[in-house]
């Protein structure tokens, strides 16, 4: 029996690998021009001085991704093909950028409060669209990509995304500094919508084979409660995974405030904000393939613990930074932590369960942590406004240390790594 690389093993997988990486690349380009870390918070900062509302932008993005996932799990678990649902739902995470461009154009005409409300509405819509897509999308990837290469797939996908995100972020910083307000933000959001359209065209090229569906009961509330309850009741390892994810939300809470903290503390320029966002994306781009390779070979548990350690280090540096130049390092560490968070978290999530109940694992692993995702930045914003950023960042440090402890002491990899990944794919 001859060993073969995954992409030579299956023509459809090679095709899917390419088109889904390209999908992520142009999605990343769009997100670079409409970053939830810099561009959108800066736009909201022109409409309000509330740290709480500015910090809420990144929270809306994460909540929208996480909260709806369990709502679609019963439906997804009964689909012989996931692609159609993915394409229908993902439209809702793409068109709002065009709406944001129009809102930005009207920013000097409409009342600032109305512009702020519309911005929050379309931001929430975009994020919820991602969440409604997420369970079907992750299930589709889990189906078309073998377990032994998923880490590398997610890593290369993330790398391609962040390559274009970094370029988009730098260009966005230039546009924000060169064009007058509000045309600078309108241009950024408009270019983001173009990137999303190109991304959709690649995603639509995904090839998927029908699977046999063994569940014949309708996806009603009783079935959902029984199957989701069984996952939580019977899988203790999955419960430790959920706890680690909840704690990680408090550790990552500080990221939402980095830009506004740097602005208020060191009076950074929009160009500098664009550069550090580019550093964030470039670091994530280079780190993601390495993270995927390490996770495929040694398991994603240790990689997750290492990523959380990097996150804690970035928060410590943010508290102790004496000049704005420290944010080059802070955003680089954050980029590496983000690479772990995306690559290993996605890869390990689809390792739980079987084809029949995987959608429940995916949905539960994200929806259950949504309250923590919402509460953490609210606590952080309140602490920043009342006691200072150091207090908010201290909560992140404690959350990160506890998450590391859970990952190292209690959680175990769902899939054994006794064999080398390449040895498990043969032709």
Your description of this structure?
By secondary structure, this protein is mostly helical. The protein has a single domain (8-208, 219-418), classed as Growth Hormone, Chain: A, CATH 1.20.1250.20. The protein has 19 helices and no strands. Helix 2 (11-33) runs antiparallel to helix 10, helix 12 runs antiparallel to helix 19 and helix 15 runs antiparallel to helix 19 (389-409). The model is unreliable at 1-9 and 417-427 (pLDDT under 50).
Average pLDDT level: 85
CATH architecture: Up-down Bundle
Shape: globular
Classify the fold: give the CATH topology: Growth Hormone, Chain: A
The tally of domains stands at: 1
- The strand count comes to 0
Largest sheet: none
Cα-atom Rg, whole angstroms?
A: 21 Å
Structural class: mainly alpha
Low-confidence stretches: 1-9, 417-427
Give the terminus-to-terminus CA distance: 7 Å
Please provide a brief summary of the model.
This is MFS transporter. This protein has one domain (8-208, 219-418): Growth Hormone, Chain: A (Up-down Bundle), CATH 1.20.1250.20. 75% of the residues lie in helices and 0% in strands.
Helix and strand layout, with pairings?
Elements (H helix, E strand, L loop, with lengths): L5 H4 L1 H23 L5 H7 L5 H16 L6 H4 L6 H8 L5 H10 L6 H33 L5 H29 L4 H21 L17 H14 L1 H17 L2 H12 L3 H29 L1 H21 L5 H24 L8 H10 L2 H17 L2 H21 L18
């Amino acid at each position: 029996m001859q060993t073969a690389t995954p992409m030579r093993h299956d023509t459809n997988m090679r095709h899917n690998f390419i088109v889904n990486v390209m999908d992520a690349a142009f999605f990343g380009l769009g997100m670079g021009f409409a970053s939830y870390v810099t561009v959108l918070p800066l736009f909201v900062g022109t409409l309000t001085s509330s740290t709480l509302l500015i910090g809420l932008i990144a929270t809306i993005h994460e909540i929208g991704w996480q909260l709806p996932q369990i709502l679609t799990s019963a439906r997804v678990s009964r689909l012989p093909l996931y692609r159609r649902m993915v394409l229908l739902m993902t439209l809702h995470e793409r068109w709002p950028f065009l709406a944001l461009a129009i809102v930005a154009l009207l920013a000097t005409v409409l009342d600032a409060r109305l512009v702020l409300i519309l911005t929050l509405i379309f931001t929430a819509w975009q994020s919820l669209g991602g969440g409604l897509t997420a369970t079907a999308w992750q299930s589709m990837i889990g189906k078309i990509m073998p377990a032994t290469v998923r880490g590398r797939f997610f890593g290369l996908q993330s790398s391609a995304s962040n390559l274009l995100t970094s370029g988009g972020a730098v260009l966005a910083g230039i546009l924000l500094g060169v064009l007058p307000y509000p045309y600078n933000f309108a241009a950024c959001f408009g270019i983001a919508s173009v990137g999303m359209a190109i991304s959709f065209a690649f995603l639509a090229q995904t090839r998927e084979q029908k699977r046999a569906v063994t569940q014949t009961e309708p996806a009603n509330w009783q079935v959902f409660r029984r199957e989701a309850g069984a996952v939580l009741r019977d899988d203790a390892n999955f419960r430790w995974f959920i706890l680690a994810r909840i704690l990680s939300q408090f550790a990552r809470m500080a990221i939402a405030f980095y830009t506004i903290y740097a602005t208020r503390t060191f009076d950074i320029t929009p160009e500098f904000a664009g550069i550090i966002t580019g550093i964030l994306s470039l670091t994530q781009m280079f780190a993601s393939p390495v993270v995927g390779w390490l996770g495929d070979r040694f398991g994603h548990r240790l990689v997750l613990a290492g990523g959380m350690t990097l996150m804690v280090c970035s928060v410590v540096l943010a508290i102790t930074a004496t000049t704005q130049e420290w944010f080059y390092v802070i955003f680089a560490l954050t980029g590496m932590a983000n690479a772990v968070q995306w690559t290993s978290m996605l890869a390990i999530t689809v390792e739980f369960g079987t084809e029949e109940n995987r959608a429940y694992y995916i949905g539960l692993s994200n929806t259950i942590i949504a309250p923590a995702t919402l509460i953490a930045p609210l606590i952080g914003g309140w602490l920043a406004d009342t006691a200072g950023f150091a207090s908010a960042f201290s909560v992140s440090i404690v959350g990160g240390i506890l998450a590391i402890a859970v990952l190292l002491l209690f959680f175990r990899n769902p899939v054994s790594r006794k064999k080398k990944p390449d040895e498990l794919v043969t032709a």
